[in-house]
Design goal:
The complex is a heterodimer of chains A (651) and B (727). Chain A has 651 residues and is mainly β. Chain A has two domains: 63-526, Methylamine Dehydrogenase, Chain H (7 Propeller), CATH 2.130.10; 535-649, Cupredoxins -  blue copper proteins (Immunoglobulin-like, Sandwich). In chain A, the strands form ten sheets. In chain A, strands 8, 9, 10, 11, 12 and 16 form a six-stranded mixed beta sheet that branches. The longest helix of chain A has 20 residues, at 17-36. Chain B has 727 residues and is an alpha+beta fold. Chain B folds into four domains: 1-30; 36-198, no CATH class; 220-394, no CATH class; 405-545 and 553-638, no CATH class. Helices cover 41% and strands 14% of the residues of chain B. Chain B is built from 28 helices and 16 strands. Chain B has a five-stranded antiparallel beta sheet with strand order 1-2-3-4-5. Chain B has a five-stranded antiparallel beta sheet with strand order 8-9-10-14-13. In chain B, a hairpin with a 2-residue loop joins strand 11 (309-313) and strand 12. The chains are: A mainly beta (651), B alpha+beta (727). Chains A and B meet through loops of A and helix 9 of B.
Chain lengths: 651, 727
């Protein structure tokens, strides 16, 4: 086992890659498969021609005509919102689809001088600060973004996104597309998968999202305070439930293995997470020792009952109740909090089908997709099924490096094949029949080349029961030759594919700044945003320009300013060197889109205030002199004249 | 030098006198006719900075800035430093857009005290031609002054008032009915709108719509067909622009709160989303448009209103700003057209009820190609949620009658009498053979009894009573209407003139213009009656007719006058109307001889004075109306009868007061006034030379005198081929 084998991607030469893949990559994978012992998989692998992974899509398919309108004529509006994560840029983004136009960036875990995110007092409070007032974290890594549900479909209220680096979950308000809360989850590292629940497992009246489930990829010694640095028995992962409304951590669940992605069932009973390193190994070879990995199902109602019943403990400083969801502690399925469904090693991605019946785990290293029937997991936990592996109703080869799956709502699954740089369209029912023994069934419907190395995939409303099967977006990790070269750092390539017909049709390439991971595609009529802000949103908002002025309490000075195009309410304001100055700026303009900016030279401050919005900054006036504060956001014909003097008198 | 300056002042004086003829208004008096107004009159927040607010609210000494919607200003009086609200001042065009006769609004500044009593009205600008020429402007001022002391909540209408129904009447302006009806609406609607807004009048909100359970998805064509989607199209030529195949705007619009309509247009998701955005008093409409221009304009970009569209219901107009606008994602209804521009607008306010009809109004500027002047025009289309979508069906809506309908109702009795008169005239004339046979040269009373009766009636009742004197200006107006835009309302506002013209057109083509001119024209009747009376009282010896040679030259003058007027009207209707003063009608009947400036009175006096000596001098030589009718008379259906012998016989021609019979005995139906004298002769066996000859022959021969046939001859004793009568 060497690195090259584990990651054959790096071996791939660019020219005639398809040919190469047909031979070398297969061989490489076969080697990997043998070395890690994918017996379960291999046993079932039949030489289904469609699943051989190598058949290149007919070139015609890639150029086939599609009448999906990609170019929006001037004034024309996109039909879908694409809600995108931004990866280690730490932000989120809104794209208009199907045009692919980027409409907005939502600073989340990053710092954004345009809006002032990470600069204003309000954003600092959301992000979190150290005792000295500095930001606690300046970095973030957003991967997966999922919306709030009502009755099995998006309601447009919230979107949640993870920060893998620091283990934080951020909430984005769907009515403003701004981050309004960030919660740091205790005792985890590598917060990877995240998913909102779709309804309450117990109360049928709560047919909407109230919980957000958070996976945990990196196991750490618990508590991670330096006492058990190298004792593998003290290492474990915690699955976390966060309250959707309060954003407080409700509970955590101790789990065997590392959790990758997370999904939630439509009936509200389960959250689940595909796992690797069920061995709990700290080193690579230890992570590969077991025959199978798992997809762990959490019985939410049972966990919450156990906490009610006091069967919980806490870890370290955290007072979040933790229940034990390990295999050892849950031997009796009838009372078990968790069920570990074995899946081939090392899976990546778990996605709920729109009909609510199945969870599909992608094989990553195994060329298979595993179809788990949710009701059979329930049967197992209710004592009606003797072996939880029997909940796997299909496990079929789809191609090399299957990662993520989306749906068209018509019974077909679309799985990204990372190694093949393809998308495979396969029929779930056909795969189940094939798995049941009818080897004549062709479950693979179509394949299409994408460019290159696809990761996440998402169709229009594909994560909801309203999956409408018009088109899908696929996040290609490599763009290589697809755009004008801009140096060694390449953009990602988000591609769009028409999935309305039997054959997929590649529609468009869109370069995106690295590195979005996941995204959801939301019908535009679901989103309902404010046109302008409301003064009430900020308790310190100036109601009238007359309220502006300089207010001193000792060396603490508050400067209240209103902006109304093309002027600030104070033409100048004077403070003393050494003052701790808080500037409160309310934009009293009520005209839609009339945003003002506030830049302060040499004080490293810039932010914008939207109509009727208020923001504040606090800093120490440590440099005497005159500082022209000016409007950075073009607001008026006299925008350039919109400025005010901050006069800092020397101490 | 002195003599030179005297000369100069003399010339100037003469010039002034001539100018005075054309423009009778005293130069010193301030006229509101097309008066220039401050450019920012509709937008300046400080309304009273440039307008005489104090004049309409006596006692006020300071005023607020414009406030409210529609806007008004508060008026204050300061007593001992104590500033008290004493009333409100508002500009009519801020509130209502009611065009007067000219098609333009009379811009009026109105004051009202805190009790809702009108304290003053001032006409800042009007474009009414009648007030320019016929009626002194002071009459309109006098009219609007009638509102002083009236309560805005009262029902006030023009006319006598109906006590039993609580209507207070106002004296109208004779000859300017449309102007005062419009002005009444302007003053009352503006007053009510502001009184409601400031709380003097309680707002009685119309009950909100309650939708029926009907909830169905309709295709676009169905929506359009059933009226749930309406269309408002404005063509470039309606805005004074060159004609084009592509409309200026072509808007489909509809009311989205109605579940069936909203869901059909927006889809279920779109409808749900939209409704969740609306407050309880909010209403959403959509507009999609094609056409060469935008209905959105750009006024909204910086927070202003969308200045091209508004929604109107009763007295309320709803405009929209950026926050009242939402994107229309698309049209979900099957078969919907493509479009260039779209919007969802939200009507906010309790006053609006979708249960009742409302209008989408498109506001535009119309270029007057004659003057290059831009005028504010609006186009609208009514929308009313269908019966089936309302739980209790459409409520009963009593719509105020259109001004013309009100006029017709108000004057139903006179209209009946007038119609009867016109019918009677036609019947009498149709029976002329019977009357002429009964008459002889010596005794024309069987004809004249009717004719003189009609003359008297037309002078007294039609002319002085109903003021229904047809005029060349109406011909010019028609001419323009035919060329540009035919509006029935314009003609229907004066029922007598309208009916009269139906009579005129019919009789001119059937018999020639003589029936109107000779029997029914009030001025013509007056003119000839004077001639007849003068003759009867012994002035006959002074009466004369121009020699035929001169008559045949001068009679063409009236055609010249007509064509000059027609030509001028193409360039300026206003000037043509001024020049139409060549007709003495306005002075004689509409305004009254003693109500006008002396040149007009003198002109009428000269014409009527001449009538003592010459039969109908104005009709024969000047009347452009007669000229305009004379031309189609060429194509009359039935003419007067002639015999073979008429070509050489001069008996009729000698007696023809109209000088319409030429040396060959032919009757010129363009000149003939249908006095019927020649028709009396036609069957007069003593006066008609050929008939008289035959009578004598038969008497000599002892033959019997058979009755006179239709051909004007004795019915032959033996069947012999009769000579065809000549028309």
């Amino acid at each position: 086992m060497n690195e090259a084998r584990m990651n054959p991607v790096e071996e791939m030469p660019d020219p005639s890659r398809r040919k190469f893949l047909n031979t070398a990559a297969l061989a490489g994978l076969a080697g990997a498969g043998l070395s890690v012992g994918l017996s379960a998989c291999n046993k079932e692998s039949a030489p289904a021609p469609a699943a051989s992974g190598g058949a290149p899509a007919a070139p015609a398919a890639a150029h086939a005509a599609s009448d999906i309108k990609l170019h929006m004529a001037p004034g024309e509006l996109d039909t879908y919102y694409g809600v995108w994560s931004g990866g280690h840029s730490g932000e989120c983004r809104i794209l208009g689809l199907p045009s692919g136009r980027e409409i907005k960036r939502i600073p989340t875990f990053n710092i954004d001088p345009m809006s002032g995110w990470g600069i204003t007092n309000e954003s600092k409070k959301v992000i979190g600060t150290r005792p000295d007032g500095q930001l606690k974290y300046k970095t973030g890594d957003t991967h997966h973004i999922h919306g709030s549900y009502t009755d099995g479909t998006y309601d447009g209220k919230y979107f949640w996104v993870n920060d893998k680096i620091h283990g934080r979950v951020a909430r984005i308000r769907g009515d403003r597309f701004e981050c309004d809360a960030i919660t740091e989850i205790p005792n985890i590292q590598g917060f990877h998968g995240i998913f909102s629940d779709k309804r309450d497992p117990v109360d049928p009246a709560i047919n909407y999202t109230t919980r957000v489930f958070c996976g945990n990829e990196f196991h750490i010694p618990q508590p991670n305070d330096g006492r058990d640095l190298d004792d593998p028995t003290k290492y474990y992962c915690l699955f976390t439930c966060v309250d959707a409304e309060t954003m407080e951590v409700r509970w955590q669940c101790k789990v065997d293995g590392n959790m990758d992605l997370v999904a939630s069932s439509y009936d509200g009973r389960f959250a689940c997470s595909n796992q690797y390193n069920t061995e709990g190994g700290a080193r690579y070879e230890d992570m590969m020792s077991a025959e199978m990995d798992a997809c762990v199902f959490f019985d939410i109602a049972r966990i919450e009952q156990a906490i009610k019943d006091g069967k919980s403990f806490t870890v370290g400083d955290s007072n979040v109740p933790v229940v034990d969801g390990t295999k050892a502690a849950n031997a009796d399925p009838k009372t078990a909090l968790t069920a570990y469904v074995p899946v081939p090693k090392n899976p990546h991605g778990v996605n709920a089908s729109p009909d609510g019946k199945y969870m599909i785990c992608s094989g990553k290293l195994s060329p298979t997709c595993t179809v788990i029937e949710v009701s059979k997991v329930a049967d197992f936990l209710d004592g009606n099924l003797d072996d939880v592996r029997k909940s796997v109703v299909a496990e079929v080869e789809v191609g090399l490096g299957p990662l993520h799956t989306t749906y068209d709502g018509r019974g077909n699954a679309f799985t990204t094949l990372f190694l093949d740089s393809q998308i495979v369209k396969w029929n779930i029912d056909a795969a189940i029949k094939f798995h049941d023994g009818d080897k004549s069934v062709q479950y693979v419907v179509d394949r299409i080349d994408v460019h290159y190395q696809p990761g996440h995939i998402s169709s229009d409303m594909g994560e909801t029961k309203e999956a409408s099967g018009q088109f899908l977006a696929v996040g290609c990790k490599f763009s290589k030759d697809r755009f004008l070269p801009v140096g060694p750092m390449h953009p990602e390539n988000e591609q769009l594919i028409d999935i309305r017909g039997e054959k997929m049709v590649l529609l468009a390439d869109h370069p995106v700044h690295p590195e979005p991971h996941d995204f959801v595609i939301v019908r535009r009529d679901i989103i309902k945003t404010f046109q302008v802000a409301e003064l009430d949103w900020h308790p310190l908002a100036l109601r009238d320009a007359k309220e502006s002025g300089v207010f001193r309490e000792g060396n603490k000075v508050t400067v209240k300013i209103a902006s109304q195009a093309p002027a600030y309410s104070l033409r100048e304001f004077t403070i003393k060197q050494g003052d701790e100055v808080t500037i409160i700026l309310t934009n009293l303009d009520k005209v839609e889109d009339l945003t003002h900016g506030w830049a302060m030279p040499k004080y490293d401050i810039n932010f914008t205030v939207n109509p009727q919005e208020t923001k504040s900054v606090t800093f120490t006036a440590d440099k005497p002199g005159v500082f022209w504060c000016y409007c950075t956001h073009f607001c008026h014909a006299l925008h350039l004249e919109m400025r005010t003097r901050m006069i800092v008198e020397p101490a | 030098m002195k003599s030179l300056s005297t000369l100069r002042s003399l010339i100037a004086g003469t010039f002034l006198a001539v100018a005075g003829l054309l423009s009778p208004l005293p130069a010193a008096a301030q006229s509101a006719y097309e008066a220039p107004l401050p450019a920012d009159i509709n937008t300046n927040p400080d309304l009273c900075a440039s307008l005489p607010c104090q004049e309409v609210l006596p006692g006020a000494d300071s005023f607020s800035e414009r406030m409210g919607k529609p806007s008004y200003v508060e008026a204050y009086r300061t007593d001992n430093g104590d500033k008290q609200l004493v009333g409100y001042v508002f500009l009519s065009t801020d509130i209502v857009d009611i065009p007067a006769y000219s098609g333009k609004p009379v811009i009026t500044l109105i004051g009202m005290d805190t009790q809702g009593i009108i304290t003053g009205t001032k006409i800042l600008r009007h474009s009414e031609p009648i007030l320019l020429l016929g009626i002194p402007e002071s009459v309109l001022t006098k009219f609007v002054n009638q509102y002083l002391g009236k309560y805005v909540g009262d029902k006030i209408e023009i006319g006598k008032g109906r006590d039993e129904e609580g209507y207070i009447g106002l004296d109208a302006i004779t000859g300017a009915t449309v102007t005062v009806i419009a002005q009444n609406q302007v003053v009352m609607r503006s007053g009510v709108a502001i009184a409601r807004q400031v709380g003097i009048l309680k707002i009685e909100p119309k009950p909100a719509i309650r939708f029926s359970a009907l909830d169905e998805k309709l295709g676009w064509d169905q929506l359009v067909k059933e009226g749930s989607v309406q269309r408002l199209t404005v063509k470039p030529e309606q805005l004074g622009m060159p004609r084009d195949d592509q409309p200026y705007v072509d808007m489909y619009f509809g009311y989205l709160n109605t579940p069936s309509v909203g869901k059909s247009v927006l889809g279920d998701g779109g409808y749900r989303n939209l409704m969740s955005r609306l407050g309880p008093d909010d209403h959403a409409i959509f507009i999609v448009s094609n056409g060469s221009d935008t209905f959105k304009g750009s006024g909204f970009v910086r927070g202003g209103i969308f200045d091209r569209v508004q929604v109107a219901q009763d007295m309320d107009a709803y405009t929209f700003r950026d926050l009242d606008y939402l994107n229309l994602w698309g049209l979900e209804a099957a078969g919907a057209p493509s479009y260039k521009e779209s919007a969802i607008f939200i009507i906010r306010g309790q006053g609006f009820s979708a249960a009742y009809p409302w209008k989408l109004v498109f506001l535009a500027n119309k270029l007057d190609r004659e003057t290059g002047h831009r005028d504010f025009v609006s186009f609208d289309r009514e929308y009313w949620v269908l019966d089936k979508y309302q739980e209790a069906g459409r409520p009963t809506v009593v719509k105020p009658d259109a001004p013309w309908v009100r006029v017709w109702k108000m004057r139903a009795v006179e209209i009946g009498l007038f119609t009867a008169l016109l019918v009677a005239v036609a019947v009498v004339y149709a029976s002329r053979d019977a009357l002429t046979r009964r008459s002889t040269r010596k005794n024309k009373w069987p004809v004249n009894a009717f004719k003189y009766t009609f003359w008297v009636i037309s002078i007294g009742f039609v002319g002085f009573g109903l003021l229904a004197q047809p005029s060349i200006t109406q011909v010019l107006t028609w001419f323009h209407s035919l060329l540009f835009k035919w509006q029935w309302e314009l003609f229907l506002t004066d029922p007598f003139i309208f009916l009269f013209w139906i009579f005129i057109i019919l009789t001119t083509f059937v018999w020639g213009r003589g029936l109107f001119c000779g029997w029914m024209c009030p001025f013509g009747s007056l003119s000839e009656l004077i001639y007849k009376v003068a003759g009867a009282i012994g002035l006959k010896r002074f009466q004369f007719a121009l020699p035929m040679k001169w008559h045949n030259r001068l009679k063409w003058i009236k055609y010249g006058v007509f064509f000059v007027l027609l030509a001028v009207s193409v360039f300026s209707m206003g000037l043509a109307e001024k020049l139409a003063e060549v007709e003495p009608f306005k002075t004689t009947f509409l305004v009254g001889m003693f109500n006008r400036a002396w040149p007009y009175t003198l002109f009428v006096a000269v014409l009527l004075g001449l009538s003592i000596f010459i039969e109908r001098p104005f009709c024969k030589y000047l009347c452009p109306l007669g000229a305009s009718l004379a031309m189609p008379s060429t194509f009359r259906w039935f003419g007067l009868k002639r015999k073979q012998e008429c070509s050489s016989c001069k008996a009729c021609a000698v007696g023809c007061g109209s000088l319409a019979i030429d040396e060959h005995g032919r009757i010129d139906h363009r000149e003939c006034m249908h006095c019927l004298d020649c028709m009396i002769l036609y069957t007069d066996e003593h006066a008609c030379p050929p008939l008289s000859q035959e009578r004598k022959r038969r008497t000599k021969a002892g033959l019997p005198l058979t009755p006179i046939g239709k051909d004007g001859y004795y019915i032959p004793i033996k069947p012999v081929p009769a000579a065809a009568p000549r028309a």
